Amino acid sequence: MPKVAVVTGASSGIGAATARTLAQQGFHVILGARRLDRIEQIAAETGGRAVALDVTDDHSVARFVAQADRCDVLVNCAGGAIGRESIAESAISDWQAMYDTNVLGTVRMVKGLLPALIASGDGQIINVGSIAGHEAYAGGGGYNAAKFAVAALTRVLRIELLGQPVRVCEMDPGMVETEFSLVRFRGDQAAADAVYRGMTPLSAQDIADAIAWIVARPPHVNVDRIVILARDQVSATIAHRTQD
User: Fold this and answer.
1) Count of CB atoms within 10 A of residue 137's CB?
2) Residues 99, 137, 143, 196: which is the catalytic one?
3) pTM
């Protein structure tokens, strides 16, 4: 019987690439996301299973967890940023949305699937954080706060699960060209494109490949944290760009 990997935020970007890559690695993948049509298509391609999931909704998470009889790997990809306003100009509703998705969504999934992960005898939790969870920057207030919280809760999990057959990893990418910036800039394609202009950013597949490598380590090896940046990026705010 193949091992089961649960991937949240699997409708696009890192989540979709991770679902496809873990399926290629031999996992039966359960894909969770709000956009059911998208994950159904990926599930059809990979032989996985698509289940509607809104990580900000307790009932949705409970329904999802009830359909996962087994879980060997949980990859929490659901998340994202909203806006680049200063703290003074930011909307509290945006902060709440980012915190509920990135932080509480991760906690809901961990709480729901932890018994199955322990029961697997070699469970693994990979929380997708960000370089923004370690370096604050102007205009990053709400997203920084959410990803710093993801880093903290991942470390706490690692401590609390010591002695249990569950590994815990924090995956922190830099700039990855996905729908991330388009969502952050509220659909402004020009602003989203400007984020990556003049440089070669990471791709979703780059991060998926790293996640697959982490998952494939032997049971006694725990990759606590991995930060992956493009060669053209050295920090959350410093990147080398060619002239247009």
Assistant:
1) 15
2) 143
3) 0.95
